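Example record used in the benchmark description.
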Amino acid sequence: MHVSLDGFVAGLNGEMDWIIVDEEIFDYAGYRTNSADTALYGRVTYDMMDAYWPTAADKPNAGKHDIEHSTWYMKVEKVVLSRSMKGKKLPNTLIVSDNIAEEVNRLKSGVGEEIIMFGSPSATNVLIQENLVDEFWIFVNPILLGQGIPFFKDLKQKMKLELIKSHAFSSGVVCLHYKKI
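Model output (structure tokens):
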């Protein structure tokens, strides 16, 4: 999850043009992504990802990251937490509209590698409330937005975390990897 230094994941209107993404960050995050065989999204993030990644590798100017992530995106199982998509059938995609905790626990205890979640602050907060988030990879961008969509919202209880690793990029972005204690 990319956040501003003051804890926002997007501006008031969802703008994310302040997020720094470069080859150094893509390469660092790529090893993390490649270890996961399931991607979990909220509906808004899923719509954004699905509008770009299926054909990103086919573009004439596709770079290394576009090709690698597009290939991964097309093979990974996708899980979308969404009430508005309830009953929709999509290839290689499971829509979870009800019993979120039960469904995510089933996925976590099933066969497979790792489940990774991209963006999706609302869905992340639902999973935090259900005690289903094990780790956070937070990319803190060197900017103060002052207002916007907060990453952590309406938390009902404290969650203690242990810092596993931090990594500073030449762009000024810092990745903080925490696990739940």
